[in-house]
Amino acid sequence: MISSRALAGGICAVLAAMVFAVPAQADPTYEGELTVGSGLIAAEDWDDSGTSLHWEVTYLEELGKWHYEYTLTVADNPGISHMIIEVSDDDPGPAFTEDNLFSPSADPFAWIGEIEIGDYDEDNGNPNMEGSVYGVKFNAADDMDALEVTVSFDSDRVPVWGDFYAKGGNDSSVFNEGFDADDPTDGPDADITDHILVPDTTTVTVPAPGAILLGGLGTAMVSWLRRRRTF
């Protein structure tokens, strides 16, 4: 008769083989693009189909965070002076703060001069803004005059649909068509054409598929052995 110890060892070996046999899954990524005339509204020198916003949001399993990346391309001078990405405010909260923003960077490398988080509307230097927004504001350094800028950062907040705004000189501006409408509540893989993905109020960690399988099978094995001892 096979002993319980030997049987348990065999089951563990099988479990290990099954876990390692689970194919590696790529971190989930969501991306999209809006252009003037197809999701974006622009004014002055930027009011052209050459103005676009591309975003890419990826879950970084090894960090337990989401990576947000936004690339704004404007059709003509003047260059981009600031960009605002909506984040969740304190209604219902908790509000997004600097504690939820990790490793901000830009391309061109030195484009970011200052980062602010707060409430913004047309009255505080945002021409043509429809309504108001609570967001992360990336300000260009004084000597930067780029027509294409990528800003990126990591966050422990999951992606939801929200708004975007950017400004240049001469009242040039651009924002998403749904800026003054209710944000969609669809999942991040939905086909939304007038909003972009932004950080939410919720903090979520996505477990690794192999860890889920190992935990479930290990629990089942322990339960089986306990039942066996009662006979």
Features:
single chain, 11-stranded mixed β-sheet, 41% strand, disordered C terminus
Structure description:
With 231 residues, this protein is an alpha+beta fold. The protein has one domain. The protein contains 2 helices and 13 strands, in the order H-E-E-E-E-E-E-E-E-E-E-E-E-E-H. The strands form 2 sheets. An 11-stranded mixed beta sheet has the order 6-9-4-3-1-2-12-11-5-8-7, with no helix packed on it. Strands 10-13 form a two-stranded antiparallel sheet. Helix 1 runs antiparallel to helix 2. It is globular, with a radius of gyration of 24 Å. The C terminus is likely disordered.
| Residue-averaged pLDDT | 84
Judged by helices, strands and strand pairing, the structural class is alpha+beta
**H/E order of the elements?**
HEEEEEEEEEEEEEH
Q: What radius of gyration results from the CA coordinates?
A: 24 Å
Strand order of the largest sheet: 6-9-4-3-1-2-12-11-5-8-7
> What is the count of DSSP helices, taking H or I runs of 4+ residues?
2
Main sheet overview: 11 strands, mixed
- The fraction of residues in strands falls at 35-45%
Query: Which descriptor suits the 3D outline?
Result: globular
What share of the residues lie within helices? Answer: 10-25%
Task: Give me the count of strands.
Answer: 13
* Low-pLDDT windows of residues: 10-24, 207-231
